[in-house]
UniProtKB/TrEMBL annotation:
It comes from Candidatus Wildermuthbacteria bacterium RIFCSPHIGHO2_02_FULL_45_25. One of its GO terms (cellular component) is cytosol. One of its GO terms (biological process) is lysyl-tRNA aminoacylation. Belongs to the class-II aminoacyl-tRNA synthetase family. CDD domains: LysRS_core (cd00775), LysRS_N (cd04322). This is Lysine--tRNA ligase. It holds the Pfam family tRNA_anti-codon. Its EC number is 6.1.1.6. It comes from the Bacteria. InterPro entries: Aa-tRNA-synt_II (IPR004364), aa-tRNA-synth_II (IPR006195), aa-tRNA-synth_II/BPL/LPL (IPR045864), Lys-tRNA-ligase_II (IPR002313), Lys-tRNA-ligase_II_N (IPR044136), Lys-tRNA-synth_II_C (IPR018149), NA-bd_OB-fold (IPR012340), NA-bd_OB_tRNA (IPR004365).
Length: 488
């Protein structure tokens, strides 16, 4: 059996034969009269009229039978059989095809349609043209690639051999289009804000640092879209949104990738309760449009997104799933409980951060049906308004589903510049004590608030997590075309 290197060398020799014959192996132009899907849809009429058609695509199979050869050709829309006959194209052209063309080559085929004795819809080739010579043989057997890492490193091969993967990314495009359409119809204006920032903010995360030579200045890749968008609310916009890449220098697992797509929108004269209603309407519109149903299957379980969804108090979940009364327990008792549960905690953690560690470890995995978890500790949301009836809690919600996937995080935005400065100062103190995820002081943003920002509700949703959910994908890597990978 020939080695990969021998097979590749043979393809280079075929390329040389083409070049010596004066044939461009990589021409700039191609002619196409129909997609393969259009051919198959209109096959009977086109065949009856003996209409000459021209299709393009990749050769996926070659089967020779003496003076005739059958091909399978595939384009984005589908695949079909083609038939090359020596008597039709001439001995010279027929032999040249067999000597120089391979599986994987992109070709242009011209001819008329007929049905074989076995009932196969087929194009009888009158003329063929190479569009791109494939110099690497495609794997003979794929089976999704034995090494999952290679699927993500060489996504182009994954797409060639796995139609389900391509369908996921087509659905991702529909999801993004559906979200944009909903917000546009609601009167939101799409905007763009800088990826490079002199001070990062808007989330608890570590940034990537880069350098701008023109200013001889270190800058950060944004970790959130929040603070620039709220400056626009100060400036007079009342409904704005952005969908774009954000970057967080954090671990990689099934729910995290260092760069990902985030949707954030901000709505003046609204609060977190208004946002919950809007979120339900958004999902109702999106699932109906993309899936045609309010029910979906995720990892073997059916999830019903029919609104309204429960509003569940953060503290109640501790009582229900961990037998903990977070109001009655002090920080040290909670810390001991967290260690017993196997939650990742550090001696520097405050009580609220210990609660959060328990929440992620022991509570969120139990949450399968869509529900709004509301009223988190205010300390964990330094950009959110606190509740008038209980300042230790914030006007917040998370949309949790499918065993703890956080799809949405939202809250009533803090618009009091004095309180916002105080919250930043507390975060800055935590940062100096070693909490690298703490948010940083952004004096420019505080200054913007001092000019006045109306009551505003803010919403953040990870598009990759949403896509994973709606395509029944276990990991974000399945729905990010080129996930971040460690070099070989």
């Amino acid at each position: 059996m020939a080695t990969f290197e021998e097979l590749q060398q043979e393809r280079f020799k075929k390329l040389e034969r083409m070049q010596k014959a004066g044939i461009l192996a990589y021409p700039a132009q191609a002619k196409k009269t129909h997609s393969i899907a259009q051919v198959l849809e209109r096959f009977d009429d086109l065949a009856k009229a003996e209409t000459e058609i021209c299709i393009v695509g990749r050769i996926r199979a070659i089967r020779g039978h003496g003076g005739s050869t059958f091909l399978n050709i595939e384009d984005e829309s589908g695949s079909m059989q083609a038939y090359l006959k020596k008597d039709r194209v001439g001995e010279q052209q027929y032999d040249f095809f067999l000597e120089t063309f391979d599986i994987g080559d992109f070709v242009q085929l011209r001819g008329v349609l007929f049905t074989t004795k076995r009932g196969e819809k087929t194009l009888e080739i009158a003329d063929h043209k190479i569009l791109a010579k494939s110099l690497r043989p495609l794997p003979d057997k794929w089976h999704g690639l034995q090494d999952e890492e290679e699927r993500f490193r060489r996504r182009y091969l994954d797409l060639i051999f796995n139609k389900d993967v391509k369908e996921k990314f087509e659905k991702r495009a529909k999801i993004i289009s559906g979200v944009r359409g909903f917000l546009d119809n609601e009167g939101f204006v799409e905007v763009e804000t800088p990826v490079l920032q002199s001070m990062y903010g808007g989330a608890d995360a570590q940034p990537f640092i880069t350098h701008i030579n023109a200013f001889d200045l270190d800058m950060y890749l944004r970790i959130s879209l929040e603070l620039p968008l709220k400056r626009l609310i100060v400036g007079g916009f009342e409904k704005v949104y952005e969908m774009g890449r954000v970057f967080r220098n954090e671990g990689v697992d099934r729910q995290h990738n260092p760069d990902f797509t985030m949707l954030e929108f901000y709505w003046a004269y609204a609060d977190y309760k208004d946002l919950m209603k809007l979120t339900e309407r958004m999902f109702e519109n999106l699932l109906t449009q993309v899936l045609g149903t309010m029910k979906l299957e995720y990892e073997g379980k059916e999830i019903d997104f029919t609104p309204p969804w429960p509003r569940v108090e953060y503290g109640e979940l501790f009582r229900k799933y961990a037998d903990i009364d977070i109001q009655a327990m002090n920080r040290d008792a909670l810390f001991a409980k967290a260690k017993k549960l196997g939650a990742k905690v550090d001696e520097t953690f405050s009580k609220a951060r210990v609660e959060d560690a328990i929440y992620k470890k022991a509570i969120r995995p139990n949450l399968w049906e869509p529900q709004f978890v509301i009223h988190h500790p205010a300390e964990m949301f330094p950009l959110a308004k606190t509740r008038e009836e209980n300042p230790a809690q914030a006007e917040t919600f998370q949309l949790l589903v499918a065993g703890g996937w956080e799809i949405v995080k939202a809250y009533s935005e803090q618009n009091d510049p004095i309180l916002q400065r105080k919250a930043f100062e507390e975060q800055e103190s935590l940062f100096r004590k070693g909490l690298e995820d703490a948010q940083r002081m952004d004096l420019d943003f505080v200054e913007a608030l001092e000019y006045g920002m109306p009551p505003t509700a803010g919403f953040g949703m990870g598009i990759d997590r949403l896509t994973a959910l709606l395509t029944n994908s276990h990991s974000l890597r399945e729905v990010i075309l080129f996930p971040t990978m460690k070099p070989r």
